[in-house]
Amino acid sequence: MEVSVKGEYALRAVFDLACHESEAPVKIAKIAERQQIPQKFLELILSQLKQGGYLGSRRGADGGYFLARPAEQITVGDILRHIDGPIAPSRRLQQGESADDSPFPELWEKVERALSSVVDRTTFSDLVVRWKEKRARRVVNWQI
């Protein structure tokens, strides 16, 4: 499976909003700066995520974007599928090859199920918790 740049940026943007859920709404410029995403490209991605029902927005001086649902209700798989389409390994049958001729189609199906299982079980809340724990360990190790 190969995640597109757009998919990667979408994941980073939703992660950023999940990290700053209590500060919502968050301005596009802040997300772009923190996640190092070109702002114009981010605007398109956030608009697509809003149309998909994952984000909401508010206009005005205090405006910005926010998660439309709690971070524990949005999975990595939700965002990847919305932006990049179906999750599948990048390998397919060669032209003229049938599933009966190759041992690989069954393997790729298993890989696809495993990938889907991981991204569908991983919420943005999970990612935020793991990231904060990782940062806390790094600070503790540095101080010793």
Distinctive features:
144 residues, Arc Repressor Mutant, subunit A, two-stranded antiparallel ribbon
CATH topology name, in short, is: Arc Repressor Mutant, subunit A
**Biggest β-sheet description:** 2 strands, antiparallel
Q: pLDDT under 50 segments (min length 5)?
A: none
How big a fraction of the residues is strand? 5-15%
> What strand line-up does the widest sheet have?
1-2
Tell me the series of helices and strands, N- to C-terminal: HHHEEHHH
- Calculate the terminal CA-CA distance, rounded to whole Å: 40 Å
Roughly how many Å is the radius of gyration?
18 Å
Shape: globular
In short:
With 144 residues, this protein is mainly alpha-helical. 58% of the residues lie in helices and 6% in strands. A two-stranded antiparallel ribbon has the order 1-2.
What does this 3D model show about the protein?
- The chain has 144 residues and is mainly alpha-helical.
- The chain has 6 helices and 2 strands.
- The chain has one domain: Arc Repressor Mutant, subunit A, CATH 1.10.10.10.
- Helices cover 58% and strands 6% of the residues.
- A two-stranded antiparallel ribbon has the order 1-2.
- The longest helix has 20 residues.
- The protein starts with a helix and ends with a helix.
